Amino acid sequence: MTQPTDIARDPDRATVLPEHLRTALWLAELGLPVLPLRAGKQPFGNCRACTRSACGDRPHMLAAGPCACPAPCHAWGAATTDPNIIASSAWAGAWRQAQAVAYHPGGAGLTVVDLDDANAVAWARQTLPATKTVATTRGEHWIYRGAMRSVNGVREGVDIKSTMSYAQWRGPGAGTMTVLPDAVRALAVKEPRPVRPAPCTVVAPAAASGPCPHRSPAYLERGISMAEQCIKDASDGIHRAVFRLFLAVLSAHGRCGCLAQAHIDRLFTAAQEKGESLRHCEIAWTNALTTLGM
Predict the structure, then answer these.
(1) Strand positions, DSSP E, the chain
(2) What does the alpha-carbon distance between residue 235 and residue 132 come to, in Å, rounded to a whole number?
(3) Distance in angstroms (rounded) separating the CA atoms of residues 255 and 238
(4) Over the stretch 133-174, which tens digit does the pLDDT of each residue have?
(5) DSSP 8-state symbol, 56
(6) Which residues pair with 190 in a beta bridge?
(7) Which residues contact 186 (CB under 8 A, 6 or more apart)?
(8) What is the pLDDT of residues 198-220, one digit of tens each?
(9) pTM strictly above 0.70
(10) Cβ distance 200 to 268 under 8 Å?
(11) What stretch of H or E contains 47?
């Protein structure tokens, strides 16, 4: 196993760096985008400038470029391999309080099959190709080479963590990492539920003055498609997820007049197929408009 990066290797600095920061710098050198975790295996909350998606959640890919905030905001969206960011003063407070280190598997081209208990581990041993395994508190992480979308609860005690997700670092593990198999990809495919969404009753915001950011229709289409997928992938807290994504879409695409009724209908349909009611969709849309002063 390789040694930690130069910052953590320096004996004068290593004595003062928090343990989790030293681990993070080492993992970043190995190519794993890292972030600190607080108690309960949770990422640190957003700063005041980014709280409640006020910045548009740009690390969540619904606007051009990363969020300019220097703090470890936006959960997996904060994960980085840049040692200058990881060891910066903006992250120092988080590392002093950190209870663990996490990494963004998809950002490193990896997929983690999170097996939460002994029954899930037994199922994996009978079903999935062998790969690198890491022991966890109650089960195991099986790590494959290759990225895919993350889905929680693909079966009892089994989550898939890859893109737009994070996994706690629990050590190097054992075994040889193998290529992501079709058997794992197939776990993320769920039969669509027959849903008849109620008609959308809100309207697109009126165009505001200022330059239009949509240099091509593909930019707007990509943003709407990503928002639809994020809503479909939301594992819990659907009310919050829908509001956050409505806010992000409006922040990135709602001020120039390019956002059409058809785009809103698509977002509402995705939310209702996920179980959100039309009333809650309308409330979330209105609250997002109000938050943005639109």
Answers:
(1) 34-38, 42-43, 100-103, 110-115, 132-135, 140-145, 151-155, 158-161, 167-168, 178-179
(2) 26
(3) 25
(4) 999 999 999 999 999 988 888 999 999 999 888 999 999 999
(5) -
(6) none
(7) none
(8) 566 666 666 555 566 665 677 78
(9) no
(10) yes
(11) none
